[in-house]
Every structure is written in structure tokens, then in C-alpha cells.
Amino acid sequence: MRNEFAIMLSALVLASCAQGCSTDVAGNATTSVEAAGASSITEMVPAEAAGFDPCDLPTELLEDLNLSGVVPTSAGPSGCIWGNDRFALGVLLVEDTTMLPDPSSSPVVSRLETLSDGGYVTHLFVLDEDTYTTQTMTRDGAVVLNATVAGSDSMESERDSLVDTFRTVLPYFPAPE
């Protein structure tokens, strides 16, 4: 099962987040988008994340990620890949968390960090030495995001991109475990 999960995550190879993202004290996502020398800040206050579906993300979130009008590609029974020619986002919701290894004990995991945002505990790590991944335990299961940056010159750039994307999607997650 562990190898099956690693293979599924590896299949979710993605491009970069082209915007800066953060989360305010109330847990609402705020995004700063810069284009042609101008920047704007918008605040999203999403509806309660009941029934989170990785293959049916809210329109507002897709717009914020510059994925408006994108149709997801199934990544198996647990999630989808959302993407266009510039950006892609792999999202899984794994309800049976018994198959999830402890990232710290997995031989395919390196650069393990813990993020604490919005009451969630999230593991951030590199999978198979080439793909940054987040794993967040929620009341509905583990939400897993996976990303790589096309044309990236460093793993640090890939890490920063995934953390920005994670913090943009976080307000839509089911409640913390």
C-alpha cells in the first residue's frame, strides 16, 4: 500500500504557483497578485468546507489560482489534477488514513518540516527526492497537495511555491482532525 501511495503522489507532478499567498489571523486566505507592475490584495472568506471534494473546487479558489474554466483530470479515486499550460495543482483526499505512512519513517521522504496553520498540523516534505508534498490530517481524512515548479532553478523555489499554494487552498479544507 505504501508504494501505491507513493506512486499516486509521484503521478501528481505539477507546475508553479505564480502568485504570493498568505493566511490572516482569522484563517482567511489573502492573496497578493502582481501583474504588469501593479498589485492587488483580495480576501476570500469561503463557505464552511463541508463535503470537501478535490475534484470539485470552488470557482473562487480556481480563479485565485488562475485556473478558471479548467476541467480536472482524475488521479484515481482519491483526487484530481487541476492545470493549464502554466500551473497545475494535484489534490487528494485520502479517507482511509491507515495506508498513510508516518512521513518521518518513510525512506522516500526527505526534508520533512511541520507547518502549523489555521489549527491544522501539516507535514511538508520532498517525495522521491524530486517532488514537494503536503499532507494535512482533517476530520474527513488526509488532504494531500503535490507540486513541482516547471523550469524551477531550485528546490527552495518549489518549496515556496507549494507552501503558497497550500495556504491558498487551506481555508477550503475540512475541519482539523
Task: Provide a compact summary of the structure.
By secondary structure, the protein is α+β, with helices and mostly antiparallel strands. 17% of the residues lie in helices and 36% in strands.
Structure explained in plain terms:
The chain is of the alpha+beta class. It has one domain (2-172). The protein has helices spanning 2-10, 59-64, 155-169; strands at 20-23, 29-35, 38-44, 73-74, 79-83, 88-94, 109-117, 120-127, 131-138, 141-147. The strands form two sheets. Strands 4-5-6-10-9-8-7 form a seven-stranded antiparallel beta sheet. A three-stranded antiparallel beta sheet has the order 1-2-3. Residues 1-49 have low confidence and may be disordered.
